[in-house]
Amino acid sequence: MQDKKVTELSESQFDTAIANGLTLVDFWAPWCGPCRMQRSILEEVARSVDGQVKIAKVNVDEAESIAGRFGIQAIPTLLLFKDGNNILRFVGVQPKEILIDAISSAV
Q: Domains in the chain, please, with CATH?
């Protein structure tokens, strides 16, 4: 079950979703084991930083042009956006503490 604080974005929603404030985007795929591990961590992060950041997911199989636009070559890859600009990139499963620290530093 997907946590309501983690939003799935389509290609048509992506630019609007990242345009304002902080947005952490997880590029993932359903067949990716590490991505499933990252999902539960993101749900914990969402509860911990509620209101400071939007947390979203982009399925690379369904949004290939977005993945290509940001050079996603491995998943999970997480990008932190501030007002539409990519300010941080994480490749591989990231622990909750690292993500919370990055969000807190960017606020």
A: 6-106 (3.40.30.10)
Tokens of 16: 């609007």
Give pLDDT, residue 1. Answer: 35
Query: Residue 36 and residue 93: Cα distance in Å, rounded?
Result: 9
- Residue in 35, 56, 99, 102 annotated catalytic: 35
Q: What are phi and psi of 43, to 5 degrees?
A: -65, -40
Residue 4 confidence class, pLDDT cut points 50, 70, 90: low
The residue that leads in pLDDT, 107 or 27, is 27
Catalytic, out of 22, 24, 25, 32: 32
32 is catalytic: yes
Q: Which helix (H) or strand (E) holds 28?
A: strand 22-28
* Residue 35 annotated among the catalytic residues of the structure: yes
- Which phi and psi angles does 52 have, rounded to 5°? -85, -25
Rg (CA), the chain: 12
